[in-house]
Amino acid sequence: MPPPIQTADVDNDGFLKDLSCWNEAIACGIAQNDNIELTPSHFEIIYLLRTFYQAHQVAPANRPFVKMVQLALGKDKGNSIYLMTLFPQSPAKLAAKISGLPKPPNCF
Amino acid sequence: MKFSLLVLASPYSQQGGLSALQFAKTCLDQGHQLYRVFFYHEGVQTASALQCPQRDEVNLHDQWKELADQHSIDLVTCIAAALKRGILDEGEAKRYEKDHFNLNKPFELSGLGQLLDAQINSDQLITFA
Amino acid sequence: MKLHLIQRSPFSNSALKDCLNTIGENDSVLLMQDGTYSLNHPLLTDIKNPTYALLQDSSARGLTTPASTKAIEYDEFVMLCSQHKHVLSWY
Amino acid sequence: MTNEILIIARSAPYGSSLAREGIDYILTSAAYDQDISILFLGDGVFQILKDQNPADIKLKSHLAALEILPLYDIEKLYAVKEDLLERGLDINQLGVKVTVIERSQVDSLIDSQDKVLSF
User: Fold this and answer.
1) Which chains touch B (3 or more CB pairs under 8 A)?
2) D116 vs C86: CB contact, 8 Å cut-off?
3) pLDDT at B111
4) Percent of chain A with pLDDT over 90
5) In this structure, what is the dihedral angle of CA atoms A19, A20, A24, A27, given to the nearest 10 degrees?
């Protein structure tokens, strides 16, 4: 059963305004704006990214993002095709948005 | 020769911005190419069109603009460093839901990739702090 | 062969010291902005490297250039930059 | 084309934003496939001290950002021995893996690089 969806207060680019209010339902709400329905596979990556961000206060760029997943979950998931399937087009950016990380200033 | 400049100095608080300007003019006088001027750290304040020094003082924004208009120089301001210091163009003002903006052409906001590009593609990148 | 631009006073900042600690035999030093306050600093008189000072910046500050240092203008500053592989700013 | 780029980090973290802005440049450059080395020199050696805890001064941890450099394939980190000693620091107090070099080696390290920039 997919998690419930909660509409979040997001900015013009779809990023969460109040980072502290993030929860799974809000993540689903952000993802819905990009037509993504979140599954446990998504949340596995989302929590990994949130833990990484809490530790380092930096959202990784695409290649380091793949490497981070690879180190934590192995090559089956730590590859760009898998991550592209979950978070299409720009995985690191989209995953960061859904995970409630701050909007990077220069990726638009 | 192809030069680029990195301006870190805060305009009006430090001399670096004036030194950079004079260096740029001398470069061009000598027939060198000025590939890009990149504003970073406190240097991003140079890009604000709203600076109002006294009439008998140099207006750094206007001087760079004049030079860029004459010689079509790339004036790039680091977007991350600029946004947090309140230097926004019209697009960013909309994005961040602000009523005002203070950065116009020929200054532009862009990422640090532009500094890397300047470092790689110039013969010399000179830092003014 | 490097050109080192010293942009801060040696009495308030370690720019000059950090630079001279690691300077190469064939490198040159150019004092500019508050770096010109280094003109008579003992650290500088100890080195054999060619030393330049930006005349505008030293005379603005009421400083005189000792014989061991060559006073230059922006023309030569730009020329020196074009003649070195690396130009490093210390600030 | 990949360039060998050396970033000389000679600002102490926290008091000024320069050290942090230097790291931002390093992370950007690495994302563009450049061969980056970092030299911690002068007060820059303070950037690599372990046990940094800046939460109470409301700043992001500099060390935590440096810890992700391996993910960006940046493995060549150097620190100047005499600058560590002068500041009463030894290698056990460092939070990231660096190669300690002597002042006399800095000149040739810089000369071997295509591009050098300091923050």
Assistant:
1) A, C, D
2) yes
3) 95
4) 83
5) -10
* Distance between start and end Cα atoms, chain D: 24
- Which segments of chain C are extended strands (E)? 2-6, 28-31, 51-54, 70-72, 86-90
CATH class in words for B2-128: alpha beta
CB contact under 8 A, B79 and A11: no
State ipTM. 0.94
**D34 contact residues in B (CB cutoff 8 A):** 116, 120
- How much is the pLDDT for D31? 85
Residue D100's CATH number: 3.40.1260.10
In this complex, whether C and A touch, counting 3 or more CB pairs under 8 angstroms, is: no
Average pLDDT for residues C24-53, to the nearest whole number? Answer: 96
Q: Is the pLDDT reported for residue A107 higher than 60?
A: no
Instruction: Please tell us whether the domain made up of C2-90 is placed in CATH 3.40.1260.10.
Output: yes
Intra-chain end-to-end CA distance of chain B, in Å: 22
- pLDDT surpasses 90 at C46: no
Catalytic residue among B5, B8, B78, B79: B78
Is the peptide bond preceding residue B106 cis, with omega within 30 degrees of 0? yes
Whether the CB of A17 is below 8 Å from some CB of chain D: the reply is no
Task: Name chain C contacts of D79, Cβ cutoff 8 Å.
Answer: none
A28 given a catalytic annotation: no
In CATH, which of 3.30.420, 1.10.3470, 1.10.10, 3.40.50 is domain A19-98?
1.10.10
